[in-house]
């Protein structure tokens, strides 16, 4: 008998605009000790499927409209709230995506683990509970667990917190672990460690795992069996290797094809003019100061985000800046954009030292360098229509005058064509668009003034993999069409390989290696680059 | 070649959305009617506001006096009409003054931040701590009594809360990427404030405004009661109501009629405020 058997599960959300079916007729089963991967893009219903089993969807508006879910022979969907509460965090545990928010900030790590142990083992005394909690921390690879027991969540790094979450999930000795994108918020080297950890624990405990993710590469190395979901339906299922090596359904094929695995295609390459340097950074040092304390006697703390970095980008070149979170790559980008103050060094754009410009001159000079931000949900003003958003830079830099509405209309419409959006969308507002469409708007805004340099800070990391592929291609096409020079900041090596001509690897505020993309990927010289490369899960 | 599309502005879209909100539109019409009546009062009022008829005394509503008369035989309709001039003017002008000062002050403090913010907000704290009545009495002593002074005094008190609310909003909005995007585009700080920060704080602004207008109208009656505001035979809704309360048992219409007028105005303002807030937020659907 399988541990978990789901039959014809359907979940619908009743909203003002009618009923939307989030999950349609989903069936799967899972044996003890096996791993099931559920893959899909955002909105595919993969999380709703698992949450509805545990009664965790908000209800109303959500409602399980049909189906059965047998866990150890009992139908979970027919259970009362009380029964479900005993199962949740008991026989079935969950790990969530964001380790930064899923721990209570004001409780010690040890106390949080002890709490879940106490709930499920009422017979134990204080000392036994503490010992169990320390064992749990050791099991997930936290060294000196006895000291770390008394630490608060903010004293732990992201990877450590995710280990704690796993420890908490395991502390109650579950039979099934549901992991909802547990590595998405983590750096690639940490992700590799967490996946290793999950594999080890599963082997030792004969634990069944449902692993929900959008990342095909991660799931390939983990899952025994995979189901692929699209718009609430399972479109393909089978043993992991079979699904990845010989995908049958067109959607699965599309998902796999969307992952960048190659270098930049020849036809999208830009001609690079080695003689013309667009951006030149010399000995840049950016330090953040945080002041605390009293108005008249502030205490100042320093954090060196970028130390002694030198870089240059030639005309037509796309330079990739790779690094893990906290490496200072975004700070470097913002320093170039003059959005943060830097303490030392020169940033020269087209022969002009940007630091020497006065406020007014800098404002005008900003026409030459524009930025594409990471989060398209936050980088567009929600109260400005697409038209106003795109017209703004044109009017601001005097490319079109306000009185010439015909010319302005033409310019704005042409921008929409450039980024592949329908012109009739101009009257809409940002919230009416999907993430990918919003990023297209943000790109249109950045190229509107025909800048000489574009800084793209993780422009695709918030997007689904198929959308990501479209946006990357769009960026390459535009950079060829307008001869753009680009600083491309990313944590994703595969994306960087596809996009960039040259790559700089950054770690702890310093550039450890800089070379052509080919060289970096084929013959990395620095050990950190090698570590990064080996940590990427590949298809 | 596709058709060239034009843009549309938030104000235009907001107007379209507002038009679909029947309650808000009804309130808008009602308020406009009240305003027009208030402006035209000297020409349409059936009697003069100081004309007494001591023989008639207080009489209930009748054909000659639609809203009845007060103890001195003055026509209540005329007094309510003249009262609306004072009350609406105080309510709208003082609130407008408070709005302008408060929004600008708060937005600048929040946006510039640092020491400027600290100094600006400490000044607000100091003003908060001043006892209101003493402040007004001081003003009257120095400048003499006048309606203009009343506006000024009330406006000078009401903007403080607005400034704090806006500062809080701006502080949280400032962190958002679209503000950085605007800086990166090369906009001036003034443009960012005007086009990106204040429009996104419009929700709390509108709500607080609709709350301020009634409190200002009531403040005026409080000041008049202290003898610092307007004096009889001039009238305002506030003074009519406080007078009506005294004679409530014998002559209920003297309380009910100005009371109803005031509540109707306040209801309309609240509905209109809600409608405006929704209309100005593009995230509420267009249809």
Q: Biggest β-sheet of chain A, characterized? A: 6 strands, mixed
CATH topology of chain B: MetI-like fold
* End-to-end separation of chain A: 32 Å
What number of domains of chain B? 1
Content of β-strand of chain B: under 5%
By CATH reckoning, the class of chain B would read: Mainly Alpha
Alpha carbon gyration radius of chain A: 26 Å
Query: What's the name of the CATH homologous superfamily of chain B?
Result: MetI-like
Q: Determine the most extensive contact between two protein chains.
A: A-B, 45 and 34 residues
- Order of strands, widest sheet of chain A: 6-7-8-3-9-10
Spell the H/E element sequence of chain B.
Answer: HHHHHHHHHHH
Structural class of chain B: mainly alpha
Give the overall pLDDT of chain B as a whole number. Answer: 82
Note poorly predicted spans of chain A: none
The helix-and-strand class of chain A reads alpha/beta
* Tally of helical runs of chain A: 19
> Sheet bearing the most strands of chain B, described?
none
Task: Give the % helix of chain B.
Answer: over 70%
- Low-confidence parts of chain B, pLDDT < 50 over ≥5 residues? none
Kindly report how far apart the N and C termini of chain B lie. 30 Å
Structure description:
The complex is a heterodimer of chains A (539) and B (287). Chain A has 539 residues and is α/β, with parallel strands linked by helices. Chain A has 19 helices and 20 strands. In chain A, the strands form four sheets. In chain A, strands 6-7-8-3-9-10 form a six-stranded mixed β-sheet, sandwiched between helices. In chain A, strand 17 (453-457), helix 16 and strand 18 (485-490) form a beta-alpha-beta unit. The two termini of chain A are 32 Å apart. The mean pLDDT of chain A is 86. Chain B is an all-alpha fold. Chain B has a single domain, classed as MetI-like fold (Orthogonal Bundle), CATH 1.10.3720.10. Chain B has eleven helices and no strands. Chain B has helices spanning 10-20, 22-44, 76-112, 114-129, 132-143, 147-174, 177-185, 189-200, 202-225, 237-246, 253-279. In chain B, helix 2 (22-44) packs across helix 11 (253-279), helix 5 packs across helix 6 and helix 10 (237-246) packs antiparallel against helix 11 (253-279). The longest helix of chain B is centred in the first third of the chain and has 37 residues, at 76-112. Chain B is globular. The mean pLDDT of chain B is 82. The interface between A and B is large, with 45 and 34 residues.
């Amino acid at each position: 008998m399988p541990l978990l058997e789901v039959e014809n599960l359907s979940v619908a959300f009743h909203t003002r605009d009618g009923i939307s079916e989030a999950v349609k007729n989903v069936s799967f089963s899972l044996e003890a000790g096996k791993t099931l991967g559920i893959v899909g893009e955002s909105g595919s219903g993969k999380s709703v499927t698992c949450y509805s089993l545990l009664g965790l969807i908000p209800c109303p508006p959500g409602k399980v409209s049909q189906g059965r879910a047998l866990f150890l022979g009992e139908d979970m969907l027919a259970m009362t709230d009380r029964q479900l509460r005993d199962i949740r965090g008991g026989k079935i545990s969950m790990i969530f995506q964001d380790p930064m928010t899923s721990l209570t900030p004001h409780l010690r790590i040890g106390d949080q683990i002890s709490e879940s142990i106490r709930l499920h083992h009422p017979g134990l005394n204080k000392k036994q509970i503490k010992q169990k909690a320390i064992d749990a921390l050791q099991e997930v690879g936290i060294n000196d667990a006895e000291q770390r027991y008394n630490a608060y969540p903010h004293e732990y790094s992201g990877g450590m917190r995710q280990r704690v979450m796993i420890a908490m999930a395991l502390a109650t000795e579950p039979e099934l672990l549901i992991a909802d994108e547990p590595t998405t918020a983590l750096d690639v080297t940490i992700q590799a460690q967490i996946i290793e950890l999950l594999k080890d624990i599963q082997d030792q405990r004969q634990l069944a795992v449902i692993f929900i993710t959008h990342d095909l590469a991660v799931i390939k190395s983990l899952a025994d069996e995979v189901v692929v979901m699209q718009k609430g339906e399972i479109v393909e299922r089978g043993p992991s290797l079979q699904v990845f090596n010989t995908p049958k359904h067109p959607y699965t094929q599309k998902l796999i094809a969307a992952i960048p695995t190659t270098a930049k295609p020849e036809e999208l390459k830009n001609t690079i003019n080695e003689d013309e340097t667009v951006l030149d950074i010399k000995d840049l040092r950016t330090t953040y100061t945080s002041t605390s304390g009293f108005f008249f006697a502030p205490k100042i703390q320093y954090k060196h985000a970028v130390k002694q970095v030198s870089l240059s980008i030639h005309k037509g070149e796309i330079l990739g800046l790779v690094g893990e979170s906290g490496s200072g790559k975004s700070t470097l980008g913002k320093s170039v954009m003059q959005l943060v103050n830097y303490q030392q060094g020169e940033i020269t754009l087209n022969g002009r030292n940007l630091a020497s410009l006065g406020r007014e001159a800098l404002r005008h000079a900003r026409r030459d360098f524009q930025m594409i931000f990471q989060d398209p949900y936050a980088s567009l003003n929600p109260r400005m229509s697409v038209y106003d958003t795109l017209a703004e830079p044109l009017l601001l830099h005097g490319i079109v005058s306000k009185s010439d509405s015909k010319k302005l209309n033409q310019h704005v419409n042409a921008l929409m064509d450039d980024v592949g959006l329908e012109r009739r969308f101009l009257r809409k507002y940002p919230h009416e668009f999907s993430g990918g469409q919003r990023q297209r708007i943000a790109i249109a805004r950045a190229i509107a003034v025909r800048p000489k340099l574009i800084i793209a800070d993780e422009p695709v990391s918030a997007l689904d993999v198929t959308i990501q592929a479209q946006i990357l291609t769009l960026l390459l096409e535009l950079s060829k069409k307008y001869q753009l020079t680009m600083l491309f900041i990313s944590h994703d090596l595969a994306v960087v390989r596809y996009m960039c001509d040259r790559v700089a690897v950054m770690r702890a505020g310093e550039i450890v290696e800089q070379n052509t993309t080919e060289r970096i990927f084929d013959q990395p010289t620095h050990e950190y680059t090698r570590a990064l490369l080996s940590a990427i899960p590949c298809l | 070649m596709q058709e060239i599309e034009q843009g549309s502005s938030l104000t235009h879209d907001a107007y379209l959305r507002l038009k679909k909100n029947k309650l808000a539109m009804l309130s808008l019409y009602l308020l406009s009617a009240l305003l027009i009546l208030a402006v035209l009062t000297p020409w349409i009022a059936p009697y003069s506001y100081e004309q007494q008829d001591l023989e008639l005394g207080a009489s209930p509503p009748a054909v000659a006096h639609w809203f009845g008369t007060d103890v001195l035989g003055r026509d209540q309709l005329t007094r309510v009409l003249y009262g609306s001039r004072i009350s609406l003017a105080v309510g709208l002008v003082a609130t407008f003054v408070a709005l302008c000062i408060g929004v600008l002050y708060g937005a600048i403090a929040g946006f510039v931040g640092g020491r400027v913010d600290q100094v600006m907000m400490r000044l607000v704290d100091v003003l908060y701590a001043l006892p209101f009545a003493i402040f007004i009495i001081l003003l009257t002593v120095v400048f003499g009594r006048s309606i203009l002074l009343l506006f000024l005094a009330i406006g000078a008190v009401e903007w403080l809360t607005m400034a704090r609310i806006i500062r809080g909003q701006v502080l949280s909005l400032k962190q958002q990427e679209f503000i950085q995007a605007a800086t990166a585009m090369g906009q001036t700080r003034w443009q960012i404030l005007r086009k990106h920060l204040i429009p996104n704080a419009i929700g709390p602004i509108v709500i607080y405004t609709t709350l301020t207008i009634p409190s200002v109208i009531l403040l005026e009656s409080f000041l008049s009661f202290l003898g610092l505001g307007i004096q009889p035979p001039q009238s305002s809704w506030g003074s009519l109501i406080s007078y009506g309360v005294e004679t409530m048992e014998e002559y209920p219409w003297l309380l009910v009629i100005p009371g109803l007028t005031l509540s109707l105005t306040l209801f309309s303002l609240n509905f209109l405020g809600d409608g405006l807030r929704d209309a100005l937020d593009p995230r509420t659907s267009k249809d």
